[in-house]
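Step 1: inspect the first sequence and its tokens.
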Amino acid sequence: MQHLGVLVPIKGLFQISSLPVGSTYGTNSDQQVFYKSPATEQQTALVVEDYADTREMVKIILEQMGYRVVEATDGIEAIEVAKRERPSVILMDMGLPAMDGYEVTKRLRDLPQFKFTTIIACSAYNRWKWRAKAIAAGCNGFLTKPLDFTKLKSVLSS
């Protein structure tokens, strides 16, 4: 049986755990959440970024990695697109118009279907307090802008 590594929150930290592919991991009153092998279904990535050039570069890299990419340009749109598209990964700009990435992440984490979605914070602010704030909001990781695409690939493939 194939297993999928998932990040499980434990007292504000994250631990890598193994989950059988296709098994139920979380549920809510409406539906069960299943994790499927990437080989059987193309995964969707949501890129939340207000700068078109940055959004386009990230989209190209993710598409080369085999993701189907959807986009949002502000925090409110990010929540709408996430609910509609149910991405397996979200790259979240922290400095967004309408609602910042910290608040978007908190709101998504409050929804059962996003409890275990991988959310990677992306910010030009590289101080430890901004990283800590992103992790406290519910992000699984933090990448500094300009994005190092080698690091992005490494984070997403682990």
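Step 2: inspect the second sequence and its tokens, then contrast the two.
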Amino acid sequence: MRHERTVIIKHPWLRRMRDDLRRLYRKHFFPVNFHPTAESEEILKKNSRIYRGSICECNSYTRINRNMIYNKPEGKWYCLECYQSMKAQNTKPSDWPLNRAEIRTFIKELAGPEGCQYDGRQWRSGGKEFTYARKILDSMGIPKDKQEDFLSLCRAFGGYCDCEILMNAVSSLLGEETLY
């Protein structure tokens, strides 16, 4: 049996309806004019457990306007972005699309003149399309499918553009602190 159950709503009108229902559900469980008493505190704790275990909110963040996936072993709902990020972070480096030597070469090239031109004070970025990262991966002879897998891994570690790979993802990718 599958360990995941994904709910994806594509139609914009249905998404809006879903988000409105989630907001309404949240208002019911967490009223604005809340006056704490011993009894109401207990009710709030119970409501919080029920609400947090529902499909209404991502278990990692309080996102309510996202498609969700249920992780059966944990018994929790996550938005797709958080779940994919968690899966990528939990993979072993031996399962990554590039080995450590290739990652080290990639990082060196990305920081260099062909990439972000990082000099310790300023840099340039190719944006969320990973313009420089893709160019460098192409020059390294990495196939397109491996490139996409690697860039997804970079996103999971906080590298949402070329320069953020250097600022956020590189220490997780190499497993060591760096100068970037």
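Step 3: confirm your contrast with the notes below.
The longest strand covers residues 4-7. Residues 4-89 form one domain.
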